[in-house]
Amino acid sequence: MHDSLYQIMGKHTAAPLPERKPAWLKVRAPGGPNYLRMQQLMEDLQLHSVCAEAHCPNIGECWEHGTATFMILGDVCTRNCAYCAIAHGRPPVYDVEEPARVAAAIAELGLQHAVITSVDRDDLPDFGAYIFAETIRQIHERLPDCSVEVLVPDFQGREESIRTVLEAAPEIYNHNTETVPRLFKRCRPGGRYERVLEIFRVSKRIAPQIPTKTGLILGMGETIPEVLQTMRELREVEVDILTLGQYLRPSANHHPLDRYYTPSEFSELREAGREMGYRHVESGPLVRSSYHAWEQVQAAGV
C-alpha cells in the first residue's frame, strides 16, 4: 500500500465541502445523436434504465457510446435507501413481456455486453428472480455472443432466488455492497451487511465459475480504514471485481455528502484492492457499478 494512503488511515479526513463540485466531477451535458437515439429507443420499447432513474452523472458518455444499464421490474422500489434517487413505494404488477423487449433493445444496439439491474421487489414471492433469469435467457438466445452482467438486489438472501438467476448463466453476478457495515442501518435500512457476504458465499458455492462483482460508493461518512476492511472482507468471500466511486447527493432530502475523495485517493484504493487479489478494481470519482462495464470484463479476463 502506498505511503499517502497510510497517512490518512488513522483519521477521518473530512474537510469543509467546497461550494461547487471539484473539477474532476464535472461532465458534459448529454445530448449527442447516439444519446438521443438511445433515449428514443427506451421510450419506444417502454423500458427503464438505472442511468436515468438514478441520475447517473455518466449518462451522456455511456448513452453516446450506445451502452446502458437496463432496469427491469419497473421503476418503483420497495425499499427507501437514504442515498438513492429511485422512487420508492408500491410497485405495479411486473410485465412478463419485458425480457423480450430488453433483448430487442440490446439487439437493436448491437451490444457485446449488456448490464441488467432492477429495483428491489420485496413484494414478489421470488423477489423478481424469475424475470432476471428470463431476461438472461432471452438475450443469450437472441444474441449468443453478447455477455450478460446482472446487478441484482439481495433477494432477502433467499438461496432459491440466487440459484434461479445463476442457473440462467449470466457472465457476471453483481450485487452492490454500497457502504461500510457501520453505515448500513442508516443508509441501507432494508439491507444487512452480513447478508451481502452470505450472498457471495452462496453464489460461489452454486456457480464457482461465474465471476462475482460488487461496488462501494464513498463519501457518506465512512473512514479509510473502514473502506479497506470492507474491501478485505469482500475479497475473503471471493468477490472478483470491485468498483469504487464518489457519492453524489441526489437532493437535500437524501443522506448528507460527507466529503469528496480525490483522484489520487481513488488511485491508492485501486492499488490496495489489487494487492488484496481482486481480478480487477475500477476506482475513480465518476465510477459507478456499470461504468465502463465492457472494459471491466476485458480487464478481469472474463
Architecture overview:
With 302 residues, the protein is of the alpha/beta class. The protein has a single domain, classed as Aldolase class I (TIM Barrel). Helices cover 38% and strands 12% of the residues. The chain is built from twelve helices and eight strands. The protein has helices at residues 3-7, 33-44, 50-53, 59-64, 98-109, 129-142, 159-166, 184-187, 193-206, 224-236, 263-276, 293-300, and strands at residues 48-49, 69-72, 113-118, 147-151, 172-174, 212-218, 241-246, 280-283. The chain has an eight-stranded mixed beta sheet, with helices on both faces. α5 (98-109) packs parallel to α6 (129-142), α7 crosses α9 and α10 runs parallel beside α11. The longest helix is centred in the middle third of the chain and has 14 residues, at 129-142. The chain is globular, with a radius of gyration of 18 Å. The model has no long low-confidence stretch (mean pLDDT 84).
Q: What is the CATH class designation?
A: Alpha Beta
* Secondary-structure element series: HHEHHEHEHEHEHHEHEHEH
Kindly report the spatial arrangement of strands forming the biggest sheet. Answer: 1-2-3-4-5-6-7-8
Provide mean pLDDT, rounded: 84
Topology, number of strands? 8
Strand content: 5-15%
CATH topology tier name = TIM Barrel
CATH superfamily: Aldolase class I
List unreliable stretches of 5+ residues.
none
Level-2 CATH architecture: Alpha-Beta Barrel
Structural class designation: alpha/beta
Radius of gyration: 18 Å
Biggest pleated sheet:
8 strands, mixed
Helix content: 25-40%
